[in-house]
């Protein structure tokens, strides 16, 4: 019965999405506006959305015409000059062309280092929920700029902790250069749909997470040269995004072998857990692009198979190492469709084991750390420093993933 209700829920969502998309297309056609790019950040993009009216046009987050970042006479050195002058501190760098879903400009938070670790780079993709309908969008950040960065305590927590925040532990990656890609697109960092629509939300939703990521990859790929190590970490929505980030940052840092860590967004092979309707909904609503060379990514029953991007990146970049952390009974993931249609805890754990054994293991480049419990996301929590399964501390496992011997990931941990 639960499975039937979940299926019905997604059918309703998809039918509504199809109808809304059709209506949007007719409206655009009747207006005679053939140039989507020209109105991407129009004032009315966010003005109709009750969730973002109050501060959509903050000077800190919107790209003003007199901001010369990205002009022809602005060099990469100019762009990073403030960060270079404030080594060890977080500095906000707007990125030209990067937009939140409300049309406001966004960018990256950068913390540069000197001395040991200054030739290493950790890229962190922030987490958050999906913006699929009014309720989920209301609970989802629609903007992230300098003001939001300055108030963001997660930038000094867990894997990002340098001991200056509330967390007394210091991450081994604190002396690396850190770049944080904020999450404000509502599309798990992988959307490519400028004219997005969410059920119950009048305003156009700008789902351009992957475009933002490509702009960041281009920018920091030019700035950071001569690196020893590049480590990509993503939590929750950012965990989903790491699968696409592997492709983008491999291209940007083609002289480096990247390492990738997905915290808490597994894509199981079991269609009862990662359903065909869910995958179809993601693709339609957010315009998700899958690698053309990944035949299995779209070859499953009912156009499923998105989970195979995890296998694809490991085979494509066979000297890289990839890691996945998940709680065995992750309630957030199990309640993705609502508590009344929650995925059974045992079924969820079994899907993780199946993903590890039957999708990832044969690549020889993936390691999976499954911990007991129902939590969701660990790398920005105090538990990051205390988590231990068997005799393996999570911090040791992450260290081995980021700095492997002979390009081999650590052994998997858990059931």
Question: What would you note in describing this structure?
Answer:
The structure is a single chain. This protein has 13 helices and 12 strands. The protein has helices at residues 2-31, 44-47, 76-79, 81-85, 134-138, 146-150, 209-223, 237-252, 276-286, 308-316, 331-334, 345-360, 394-402; strands at 91-99, 105-111, 120-125, 177-181, 193-196, 205-207, 229-235, 258-263, 321-327, 366-371, 388-389, 392-393. α8 (237-252) links the parallel β7 and β8. The radius of gyration is 21 Å and the shape is globular. It starts with a helix and ends in a 13-residue tail after the last helix. The model is unreliable at 1-71 (pLDDT under 50).
Low-confidence stretches: 1-71
Total DSSP helices: 13
Helix content: 25-40%
Q: Roughly what fraction of the amino acids lie in strands?
A: 15-25%
SSE order: HHHHEEEHHEEEHEHEHHEHHEEEH
Spatial strand arrangement across the major sheet? 1-2-4-3-7-8-9-10
For the sheet with most strands, the description reads: 8 strands, mixed
What is the rounded Rg? Answer: 21 Å
Structural class: alpha/beta
For the secondary structure, the number of strands is: 12
Shape: globular
**Mean pLDDT rating:** 86
How far is it from the N-terminal to the C-terminal residue, by CA? Answer: 29 Å
